[in-house]
Amino acid sequence: MCTPRESSLENATSYERRRRLINEFWHALYDGADAGAATWEALDRMNDRVTTALRKRPPDLCLAESLTAKAALMISLKKQS
Fold first, then answer.
1. Residues 10-69: tens digit of each pLDDT
2. What is d(CA 79, CA 81) in angstroms, rounded to the nearest whole number?
3. Which terminus of the chain, N or C, has less C-beta within 10 A?
4. Distance between CA atoms of 25 and 43, rounded to whole angstroms?
5. Phi, then psi, of 10 in degrees rounded to 5
6. How far lies 9's CA from each of 14, 30, 59, 66, in Å?
7. Rounded to two decimals, what is the model's pTM?
8. Where are the alpha helices (DSSP H) in 1-81?
């Protein structure tokens, strides 16, 4: 588990790589992925929170990664009929 302080002390290469992976996930999701057990409304709210976390100074990479992992889990679950 990382803390916001850890995020602010990381080297630039690691920070940019983590941020790029988060952005790639969300871009791929909106490029036509199935929302799985999640609703698009819930995913939009999570994406808004991720964007806010990444815009903070220093960016809260831990929160952005946590929300992205939660979204990935929700997407991977199958809808119950």
1. 567 888 999 999 999 999 998 877 788 888 999 999 999 999 999 999 899 999 999 999
2. 6
3. C
4. 12
5. -70, 160
6. 10, 31, 11, 18
7. 0.80
8. 4-9, 12-30, 40-55, 61-76
